[in-house]
């Protein structure tokens, strides 16, 4: 899609804000209300939402429930995405144990590792399986109406490419990569009903965030600048 990454990031925040408003029984919200809670300008809110359609009425604002439902639908978050975690060390365990990581939109359905002392352990009702079982497991899930869409990659950097390869070979098309390694996506092909394509990778790195923050701490002139 042609939605800028920065816009997508902010729209995910607007959805969270809309959920908070709905929980507080707020039915109408202006772009100013959304902007204040999302930490952006009202102009930015209106501009970002134009990528998703025409919403809201001048002078009245947005109907919270309608805007939330429409954004969720367009973001593909009105359905459940099945998730597997590959690499059940410290980080894999932390994510698998985090209650908010598995809810309506994302559901952990399988946990995988290679270490004999890790395989077989149980985390929140799921037994950690050997990575060699990933292909058959995904195929078994695909046999039901649901399939495995996303993989969280929490293995050491030197094993990231091989583990990503296992995910792609099993048919998992989206990888959230936590390992500090650049995945070579041209080698990570997944078959889809319409042919082969490269897997989609999103990288998460809290240490990179710390490094940016350290730079900004050098002085007030070095604060983050708004990207457009
Ligand atoms: P860890 O050593 O505790 O756990 C790694 C696990 O991966 C081990 O259980 C190991 O047996 C397993 N593993 C190794 N190769 C595998 C393979 N091919 N298939 C399946 N499992 C395999 O490491 P950790 O502290 O949990 O960190 C995991 C990764 O996350 C590291 O790459 C680390 O650098 C990274 N990390 C990222 C962030 C972030 O913000 N992105 C934060 C912390 C750690």
Our count of helices gives 8
Number of strands: 11
- Please give the CATH architecture of the largest domain: 3-Layer(aba) Sandwich
User: Given the C-alpha coordinates, what overall shape results?
Assistant: globular
Report mean pLDDT, rounded to a whole number.
91
Per the CATH scheme, the topology name of the largest domain is: Rossmann fold
Name of the CATH class of the largest domain: Alpha Beta
What is the helical fraction, as a range of percent?
A: 25-40%
The parts where pLDDT drops under 50 for at least 5 residues are none
Instruction: Give the helix/strand class.
Output: alpha/beta
Task: Please give the order of strands in the largest beta sheet.
Answer: 5-6-4-3-7-8-11
Please give a structural write-up.
- It contains eight helices and eleven strands.
- The protein is an alpha/beta fold and 228 residues long.
- The strands form three sheets. The protein has a seven-stranded mixed sheet. It has a two-stranded antiparallel ribbon with strand order 1-2.
- A hairpin with a 2-residue loop joins strand 9 and strand 10 (195-198).
- The chain is globular.
- The chain binds nicotinamide-adenine-dinucleotide.
- The site of nicotinamide-adenine-dinucleotide has 26 residues, from helix 5, strand 4 and helix 7.
Q: What's a concise summary of this model?
A:
The protein has 228 residues and is of the alpha/beta class. Helix content is 39%, strand content 21%.
Give keywords.
Arc Repressor Mutant, subunit A, two-stranded antiparallel ribbon, alpha/beta, seven-stranded mixed β-sheet, 2 domains, 11 strands, Rossmann fold, 8 helices, binds nicotinamide-adenine-dinucleotide, 228 residues
